[in-house]
Amino acid sequence: MNIIQELEREQMNAVLVKRGVPEFGPGDTVRVMVRVVEVAEADPKDKKKKAAPKQATERLQAYEGVVIARSGAGLNESFTVRKISYGEGVERVFPIYSPFIAEIEVVRRGRVRRAKLYYLRGRRGKAARIFERTDARARRLNAAWKGFKKPKGEAEDLTQIKGIDADLFGRLKQLNCIKLEQIANLSDEDIANLDDTLNLQGRIEREGWIEQAQRLIAEATAGEVPAEEAK
User: Fold this and answer.
1) Are 40 and 3 in contact (CB under 8 A)?
2) Range of 222's domain?
3) 3-state class of 195 per DSSP?
């Protein structure tokens, strides 16, 4: 592996730590959550208001459509999503490892025979319909691990565990992993599922998440003073 490939792999891993890339291809319907940065500007006609520094706000915008092409490889891989908006076909190209993509969700898996579905540009209505894929591979992908059963109560601050930052905590929340007790009681199967889904590359065991969570729980329990002793 040369230097360029190593740098590309580092950039890809940096994105995969923050979000996953599901398995999808042409014919699949996907929902892409795109980060949109907006900057509020003051009205130039309003002279009474003092010039304030511009504040950027970020919001998520959903773009849902059919994948008609997937091209490139490595860091430069991209996919084209087509949707019908107000009777007009709209297409958008997304780099798979773009930092402006917050999440890619596969809504429906389609059954097609081509790698490029550009023929859909000339079709409307039923003629552009793609049948759903129901073979063994589609069932396996649909039955993939989706996360834990949501526990009761509010989410705890998992960033107390060394190795879990705010972005990774957000991804753990999506999998309903929000309690220190869940981390402390992870089974081998849970570790494998988390490692696979979040592309952690063995960080749970290497960074000692389970031991850290157990220690934090023990410290919190020791810090609690019974009501009778407090009196």
Assistant:
1) no
2) 158-227
3) helix
Average pLDDT along the chain, 231 residues, taken 10 residues at a time: 85 83 92 88 62 76 95 93 92 94 91 93 89 86 82 90 88 89 93 88 92 92 63 50
Alpha carbon separation from 106 to 61, 65, 71 (Å, rounded): 16, 10, 18
135 shares a domain with 40:
yes
CA distance 193 to 176: 13
Q: What's the rounded Cα separation, in Å, for the pair 164 and 67? A: 33
Structure tokens at 184: 């402390």
> Do 58 and 109 lie in a common domain?
yes
Number of domains the chain is built from: 2
Identity of the amino acid at 217: I
Pairing state of beta strands 101-108 and 29-40? Answer: antiparallel
How much is the pLDDT for 226? 59
- Give CA–CA dist 181/200, Å, rounded: 20
Query: What's the pLDDT at 27?
Result: 94
What is residue 138's predicted lDDT score, i.e. its pLDDT? 84
Kindly state whether residues 135 and 186 are assigned to the same domain: no
- 149 belongs to a structural domain: no
CA angle 11/145/71 to nearest 5° reads 40
CA distance 71 to 60: 25
Q: Which two tokens stand for residue 120?
A: 């859909």
The whole-number pLDDT of residue 47 equals: 59
Residues 169, 173, 175, 178: is their CA dihedral positive or negative? positive
pLDDT of residue 48: 58
